[in-house]
Amino acid sequence: xxxxxLLPQDEAVAVLGLPLDGLAVGDVRGVPAMAVGRxxxxxxxxxxxxxxxxxxxxxxxxxxxxxxxxxxxxxxxxRNVADVAGGGAVASEHLGAxxxxxxxxxxxxxxxxVFRRTNVDVEIANAVGRPSASRGVLxxxxxxxxxxxxxxxxxx
Length: 156
Known about the structure:
Blueprint: H1 3-6, H2 9-16, E1 23-30, E2 38-48, E3 57-67, H3 70-85, E4 91-95, E5 98-104, E6 108-115, E7 118-125, H4 131-149
């Protein structure tokens, strides 16, 4: 699934509060990693490019991983949380039926989530807003992406 479908540019600028023409989107498809049960990965990088906006550079990164089963997705989620936290503080968070962890770093805030066979990890540059405000943006982005990915009637 492309970034245009996961989090369209017009929604990303609205969530971030950027001017309509202020965001460039990069789309990278990853290869399967069967050793960890990952069947596909998509990374969407949103870069602020409007010359009048005070923040420049990468402001949002959305990474989605699809796995063969919920156990593989959860195991990779736990590895990702440990890697991003680097021994630092991790705050648990629940987004409906999804489980999530939030890590606040000096320059970015990251929300890593797992729901069934899917991981959605989102990071926002702290320059976009205070880390406490960033959490609301991250929650919003994860919910939007999961809504596009998950058939809620599915029991998988």
